Amino acid sequence: RSLFDLYDYHWDGKLSQQLDNWYAKPVTLRKSAAFPISLPHPLRWIADHRSDSDLPGVSEAIVHGDLHGSNLLLDDDYNAWVIDYEDTGYGHVLRDYAEFGQNVLTRLHPGPDGSLRWLYLLAVNLVSSTRSDGGMPLIPEIDAHPASARAHKILSAIQRIADQQTQYQDNRQLLWAILLDIAKVYTALIKDRRRQKRLLYLGGIICHRLDHWGDEQWPPQDWATIVWTST
Q1: pTM of the full predicted structure?
Q2: Whether 120 contacts 201, CB under 8 Å
Q3: Distance CA 125, CA 119 (A)
């Protein structure tokens, strides 16, 4: 089945219940000085393109089901311990990796300036490869910024471990998994407007990448000329 249908089934129809609301969303997100790129509105895009999530090689496994920063504890020896197994059960084999990656990008704010450019740079690199083992490029701007470099290291590890443990081939599986997780979390975060905005921007970049999957040029050439402001 499609990934949309698979996630909707495991989430008790929470995605399909929102479709009418998502169809009412604008086609594109509103640009701003803080994020001056025209992107698809991810919720509307999911509603319009959900049949495109019918991808080859989709499989299920036992997943944690709620893997994010608040459910990871670190002891004095830097060992990570996972808690809260209430949602453990069958699910898409990439579900935990996608949720953790989304959480890193939208919940950890890299730097005191709050610039959304760091989210943009990390997201663009995350979605760059079409293969599961394609890696995540580390550009000098990210490497020179400690918080962004740390987030990049975590995201690269997530991709590497997902590839090693699941043997998935098409990176669209991971991007769709992140996108559907964004949709679920956005709907639940009614009072957290700041993170909702970050979720939409991340989702918009993923949608744009999926729309231009076969393009040789990534990111688009005109994105390099955009002027960013901190906010």
Answers
A1: 0.94
A2: yes
A3: 10
Nearest to 174 by CA among 156, 149, 186: 156
HSE toward the beta carbon, residue 147, CA cutoff 13 A = 14
Residue 52 has a pLDDT of 96
Residue 131 bridge partners (DSSP): 170
Q: For residues 192 and 185, give the distance between their C-alpha atoms in angstroms, rounded to a whole number.
A: 11
CA 185 to chain centre: 11
- How long is the chain? 231
Cα distances (angstroms) measured from residue 107 to each of 103, 122, 138, 146, 195 = 5, 13, 21, 16, 7
Residues facing residue 40 across a β-bridge: 28
Name the CA radius of gyration of the chain, rounded: 17
Residue 40 sits at φ, ψ, to 5 deg, of: -65, 145
Both tokens of 170, joined, read 């098409």
Local structure of residue 51 (DSSP, 8 states): G
User: What's the pLDDT tens digit per position in 87-138?
Assistant: 999 999 999 999 999 999 998 765 555 678 889 999 999 999 888 888 888 9
On the 0-12 / 13-18 / 19+ scale of CB atoms within 10 A, 219 is: buried
pLDDT digits (tens, 9 = 90+) for 44-79: 999 999 999 999 999 999 999 999 888 999 999 999
Mean pLDDT along residues 159-163: 93
